[in-house]
Amino acid sequence: MKKLNNLECIFCQIVSRKAPASIVHEDxxxxxxxxxxxxxxxxxxxxPKGHIDHFTDVPDDLAAHMMKIAQxxxxxxxxxxxxxxxxxxxxxHGFGVAHAHLVIxxxxxxxxxxxxxFFEVVDGKIVPAQDSLPPPPPRAELDRVAELIRIE
Length: 152
Ligand SMILES: [Zn+2]
Fold this sequence. Notes:
This protein is α+β, with helices and mostly antiparallel strands. The protein is built from three helices and seven strands; from the N terminus they run αβββαββββα. The chain has a single domain, classed as HIT family, subunit A (2-Layer Sandwich), CATH 3.30.428.10. A five-stranded antiparallel sheet has the order 1-2-3-5-4. Bound molecules: zinc ion.
C-alpha cells in the first residue's frame, strides 16, 4: 500500500479524524461514510484507509473487500430507507477526490447514476449541474441516515 496519509487529501483527513464525516462502517483497512453532496438519500462510499489515487492501483483483495462492504451497505439502504430505492448502483469514476472511492448510489429512477439531469458537459468536462443537484443536507441529516444504515 502507498503512503498511509496524505495531509492535503480530504479523505485521508477523514481517516485520521481531522475532517468530519458521517461514518457508516469502519474496519482495519477501510472506512465508509456518507457523501456530503448526495444525489439521493443514503448515498455513501467505501474508501481504503491508505492513500491510493487510482482505483486500479487498489490491490485486488482490498478491492474485493471494498465491494463486499458496498454490498452490505447497499442491502442496508434497501432494507432501511423509506422510500425504498428501486435499485442500488455502484460507481468508481475517479474524479472529484484523488483517493480511490467506491460510491454506493441509491437509485429511484434510471437517471440517478449517469444522467445529464445531474451533470453537464462544460468545456469538454463532466461537472455537476449546480442548479439541478439537491442542496447539500446538513450534517445532522447525514448523521441521522448514517445511523439508520450503519453496518457491523
Ligand atoms: Zn487520501
